[in-house]
Specification:
Oligomer: single chain
Strand content: under 5%
Number of strands: 0
Number of domains: 1
Order of helices and strands: HHHHHHHHHHHHHH
Structural class: mainly alpha
Largest sheet: none
CATH superfamily: Heme oxygenase-like
Number of helices: 14
CATH architecture: Up-down Bundle
């Protein structure tokens, strides 16, 4: 049986967590950096993302945004109150944050509309080909994986890296000021919220996962969690690649360089 873990140090300091968790996070850092260094964010903040690529991004991520509370609900089904401290923490956290997520689909639609993608197209149009890997992966691991695996893939990996790219975009005055003042606040609310609270959510998820796993989990179980994190990151990288593969500005720069 794994030795129990109860965090005593600060939530947002990696040293507060078991050594296996620290090593896992470090091992995944290079893949996470590929997400944050993706060309799509530079194009977006420099207003160089063309209309087709913007549509690909908004519509490609929409199924994931709309389904995200469902992934959390699938993980909630795995908990049992009183079975362990980790179960109790996960149950309480998931119930609370499913409610937090309830309005985020509408905020995404507002961002899309502000960026030029119509609500009806988002709701009823087909997502661009090749952008569904992230949604399919998160649904699969949330439905079939362990509680720790489901939460590490979604609430730790995806919420964490999303908070960081949302911060990059929201911090760009060039990008935010490109929205008409009359709709700016509503259009950017999704970004604002995720740049803010997603700084805490992944740490809370890591705390829960560490409590579920204990201080001395099986090495194979830890390796599996690391692979889940990396697969989430890679799925987001592939989505970004697909969104900008036809970007006119990107193509022009490459042609000039050639």
């Amino acid at each position: 049986m794994n030795a129990s873990f109860e965090r005593t140090g600060p939530l947002k300091e990696l040293a507060s967590y078991p050594q296996w968790a620290q090593d896992m996070v470090a091992d995944c850092e290079a893949t996470k950096k590929q997400v944050l260094d993706h060309e799509i964010w530079r194009l977006m903040v420099n207003l160089e993302l063309d209309s087709e690529s913007t549509r690909n991004f908004m519509m490609g991520l929409w199924p994931f945004i709309e389904r995200f509370p469902s992934f959390m609900a699938l993980n909630l089904l795995k908990t049992r109150y009183g079975r362990s401290m980790g179960d109790n923490m996960a149950r309480r956290w998931l119930v609370r944050n499913i409610r937090v997520e309830q309005n985020h689909a509408e905020y995404w639609i507002n961002w899309a509309e502000g960026a030029g993608v119509a609500r009806e197209e988002l709701l009823h149009g087909a997502a661009p080909r090749g952008t569904d890997a992230l949604t399919r992966w998160c649904e699969e691991i949330s439905a079939r994986g362990t509680l720790a695996a489901g939460m590490v893939a979604t609430n730790y990996a995806i919420e964490g890296v999303t908070g960081e790219w949302a911060q990059m975009i929201y911090a760009s005055a060039k990008y935010t000021e490109s929205f008409d003042p009359s709709i700016r606040a509503s259009s950017l609310r999704w970004l604002h919220l995720h740049a803010d609270y997603d700084d805490t959510h992944p740490w809370e998820a890591l705390d829960i996962i560490s409590t579920l796993m204990g201080t001395a989990p099986h090495v194979g179980d830890v390796a599996h969690l690391g692979e889940c994190i990396k697969r989430s990151y890679v799925s987001m990288i592939l989505l970004g690649d697909r969104c900008i593969e036809t970007c006119a500005h990107r193509r022009m720069v490459r042609e000039v360089a050639a």
